[in-house]
Each structure stands twice: as structure tokens, then as C-alpha cells.
Write a structure and sequence with these properties.
The protein is an alpha/beta fold. The chain has two domains: 4-95 and 208-253, Rossmann fold, CATH 3.40.50; 99-206, Rossmann fold. 43% of the residues lie in helices and 18% in strands. Helix 1 (15-24) packs across helix 10, helix 2 (46-62) crosses helix 3 (73-86) and helix 8 (158-173) packs across helix 9. The chain is globular, with a radius of gyration of 17 Å.
């Protein structure tokens, strides 16, 4: 069995990370799991998110994954350390809000982190605050509904403008000049976020840094294959994948567990 880079998210948001990885490692095999049947994770009890993450990781390992990318900020926040304890010999790369570069570029000293509620509840975010938050004001902004828009392929238009304005306007009014995209779905809304924020506001996406870390830890090259699996119905998902990323690949359904 060829070595595989396993990647998972609660939905299609992590495909943005997959695209970054493929740009740097075009000859590596990637298996991506989108847990759409149980998305979004951001509103789930933390214990459930840990359980879902355990199940998906076990599936990826069974399929040959020698590196697992937790391409979900919510799952990384509440389950990454747990997964590392369960699989001490398996390298993991997680998502974390890019506070360090945000603090480096802010001029007003006010940074807004846009994320899900679960991301802010996890131990990972508190450790970031401890390490990089001195001397700056960190605004934690939960953006309800943004994940669902991306999962429907709605990334522009009046509905997106209204949803982005609802949560972006308050942080801009508070003086934030730097906005961190703390959910893998949110970069798909970045054009609208950037347009409404204006050129004076920096928008930071951690995905490129995550991809570079994957390069440092990646197993041997394979055939350059990308496989996508989803929990729940797969009908129409290939179209959504192409719409969001330009990737043309088949999508198959995988069953991981019966409980919700």
C-alpha cells in the first residue's frame, strides 16, 4: 500500500488546504474525508467532535495514511492533542488561527479572529493567546452560517454580502485592521470579506503555512492521486468540489459510524 497523506474536515472547507498541499506536493497521494453528514462541527459538543475525529483518523490510517492533516479548526482546537496521544507515532498537522503573523502586521493593535464557537472553546486557542496575545486586543467573532453557505456553494451574491457584513462590521467598528480566517471554510468567502473590509485591512489565511508544514513531514511520493470521500450523500458533491476549487474528481460515500 502506497503512503497516503490523510486530510479531513467537517465538510468541504479543507479542500482549500488540499489545493495548497497539491501545489507543493503534486506527486503525493491524498485521501480527503469530508464529514458532511455531521457538519458543521462548530456547533457540536466538544466530546462529539473528539469522537468524530477519532473515527476519521482511524479510517485514514486503515487506508494507508502516514500523515494526517486535521484541516478543520474546530477539530484541531478540541481534538488535535487527543489524537496525538492516541497515535504517538503518527505525525499530525493541525489548523490554528494565525495569530502570530496577525500580531506582527497589525498597526492598530486590534486583531479579529473569525471562527466557530468550538474553535474558541478549545485549549489550542487559549495557548495561542498565551503565546502571542501580549500587547494586542484579540476580538473573538463567531460567524454563524458561513460554513453552511460554503457547503451549499454560495460564495458570492447578496446573501453572502449580508452574512459577511453582519459579523465583519462590528470588528471593523472596533478598530481591527487585521482579520484572521479561523475556519477552513472562510477563505472561500475571502473575496467578499476583502471587498467589504477594504484595502487597509489585512486578511490572513493559515492554509499556506499548513501546507509548508506538510511538506516538511510528508511521506514518500506516490502517483499524485486525489481521492475524496464524504459521509452522507455524495450526489452533487463533485460539482461543488469543482465550483469551489476547480478540481475534477469523483466523490464516493464512506460510512464511519451510525451515531450522531
Amino acid at each position: 500500500m502506497l503512503a497516503v497523506i490523510g486530510v479531513f474536515d467537517s465538510g468541504l472547507g479543507g479542500l482549500g488546504v488540499v489545493c495548497q498541499i497539491r501545489d507543493l506536493l503534486p506527486d503525493h497521494d491524498i485521501l480527503y474525508v469530508a464529514d458532511r453528514a455531521r457538519a458543521p462541527y462548530g456547533r457540536r459538543p466538544l466530546e462529539k467532535v473528539r469522537t468524530f475525529s477519532e473515527e476519521i483518523t482511524a479510517h485514514l490510517v486503515a487506508e494507508g495514511a502516514e500523515l494526517v492533516v486535521v484541516a478543520c479548526n474546530s477539530a484541531s482546537a478540541v481534538a488535535l492533542n487527543h489524537l496525538r496521544r492516541l497515535h504517538p507515532h503518527l505525525p499530525f498537522v493541525g489548523m490554528e488561527p494565525a495569530l502570530k503573523p496577525a500580531v506582527a502586521v497589525t498597526r492598530t493593535g486590534i486583531v479579529a479572529v473569525l471562527a466557530t464557537a468550538a474553535t474558541f472553546q478549545g485549549e489550542l486557542f487559549e495557548s495561542l493567546i498565551d503565546r502571542f496575545g501580549d500587547g494586542v486586543t484579540i476580538i473573538r467573532q463567531v460567524c454563524d452560517g458561513w460554513v453552511e453557505l460554503v457547503e451549499q456553494g454560495v460564495v458570492e451574491g447578496p446573501e453572502v454580502e449580508a452574512a459577511v457584513t453582519e459579523y465583519l462590521a462590528p470588528v471593523l467598528a472596533a478598530g481591527a485592521d487585521t482579520v484572521v480566517l479561523g475556519c477552513t471554510h472562510y477563505p472561500f468567502l475571502a473575496p467578499e470579506i476583502g471587498r467589504l473590509a477594504g484595502p487597509a485591512v489585512s486578511i490572513i489565511d493559515p492554509a499556506p503555512a499548513v501546507a509548508r508544514q506538510v511538506v516538511r513531514l510528508a511521506p514518500g511520493a506516490g502517483r499524485g492521486r486525489l481521492s475524496i470521500e464524504v459521509t452522507g450523500p455524495s450526489a452533487g458533491v463533485s460539482r461543488l468540489v469543482h465550483q469551489l476549487t476547480g478540481l475534477d474528481t469523483s466523490v464516493r460515500t464512506v460510512t464511519l459510524a451510525r451515531h450522531e
